[in-house]
Amino acid sequence: YxxxxxxxxxxxxxxxxxxxxxxxxxxxxxxxDSLSRLHTFxxxxxxxxGPGEYVxxxxxxxxxxxxxxxxxxxxxxxxxxxxxxxxxxxPGSKIFFQSAFALKRELRVRTDFDDQWVAVASFNNHQRSxxxxxxxxxxxxxxxxxxxxxxxxxxxxxxxxxxxxDLNAWPAAIRDDLQI
Length: 180
Description:
Blueprint: H1 2-6, E1 11-12, E2 16-25, E3 40-50, H2 52-73, E4 77-81, H3 92-100, E5 104-111, E6 116-127, H4 129-133, E7 137-138, E8 141-142, E9 144-151, H5 152-163, H6 172-177
Parallel strand pairs: 1-7
Antiparallel strand pairs: 2-3, 3-9, 4-5, 5-6, 6-9, 7-8
């Protein structure tokens, strides 16, 4: 939310992407007792602002490149439509809307030892819900926003589950991509 607060009341000249690495703190309704759902973890985030088509394109391109990396790395993964855990106590319409329009997609990686799927990246189209709340515009029009977040510890947990802890034994593609 820091970039939304920093842009509160602004009119953007064109589209914009902002990226940062920050600690993320969550107390999710379920799964907090597992390494796959840490309460605090580091997250690389990209936040896009602009017309709806631009935001959707940024999200789709980042999803495609993240999926391509998983294929290159030869790790078991899948993309699913999801809803936010913090909507668990909210009226069903929010969860339905988010799922029905695929506004939140997750890239999940399988953990071999327990045959679970861990969300390691999230691709979220906020449409105008946050830009309206923070009065952010794109030129003369209302701006849309979306974000992508990659959870570093979640990804490391999933990779080590599939590939082991000996980084030298990991496929060359992943060692090259991650500069290991």
